[in-house]
Amino acid sequence: MLPHTVHSSERVGQGSIPEYLKRALRFNLMDFEFALSQMVQLCFAPQSVFRASKHRKLTKNHWSRDDPAFVVLQILFLMCATLAYLFAFSAPLGQIIKFIVWEVLVHYLLFGMSIATLTWYLSNKYLLTRGLSHSTKQEVEWLHAFDIHCNAFFPLFLMLYVVQYMLLPILLTSSFLPRVLSNALYAVSFSYYFYITFVGFLELPILGKQEYFLYPVGLIVVCFVLSIIFPFNATIWTLSTYFPVRAL
């Protein structure tokens, strides 16, 4: 058997958040091409992305990514999308930095870490399966829970930042069909978010009853139906929290 050379990325295991953060500052160690390919796969075949976590568990003894390239690219894309909205709504120059900081640090990182912490806690508290009595106890890594959130966030980003931006002249009108289209866009985006979250935790053999992560989809469907009955435009409501938006 050939000797196996242990690279720096393979020494990153469970609980290796400090090492992960260090690598986020070393762009020469990141595989951006692979991260981009995973982003494409998340839109069409998310299962293939999460199967890679099984390979990492077998070869490196951890589920989570040790390459922060995926997160770095998401932050760059989010900054570009935020700038596009700021220019579209003629935001004052002094608010540009404020909006970017809010979207990246609060909306993406803080909210993302909060969701990851919640799913990590619930998974380890209620969804862990009982293994053999002599087997080593395994738990879901927090960093992998954050990975799952980031994976689920990317298609949502494409639909609610990119597609919505291109459809703004239509979605900002107050007539019936644009309102249904706007609400359907949000319903599909968040439903797919929870679906990818479900797929991500489904790939972990140490968990059971992962279908619980799909339960919020039922609530989303109910809200979508109510939005058709009662006049509500998700695009106008969301953007009005940032900009002085009025229905056309």
TrEMBL record:
Its main location: membrane. InterPro entries: UNC-50. Keywords: Membrane, Transmembrane, Transmembrane helix. The chain crosses the membrane at residues 69-88, 100-122, 152-172, 184-207, 213-239. One of its GO terms (cellular component) is Golgi membrane. Belongs to the unc-50 family. PANTHER family: PROTEIN UNC-50 HOMOLOG. This is UNC-50 family protein. The lineage of its organism: Eukaryota, Discoba, Euglenozoa, Euglenida, Spirocuta.
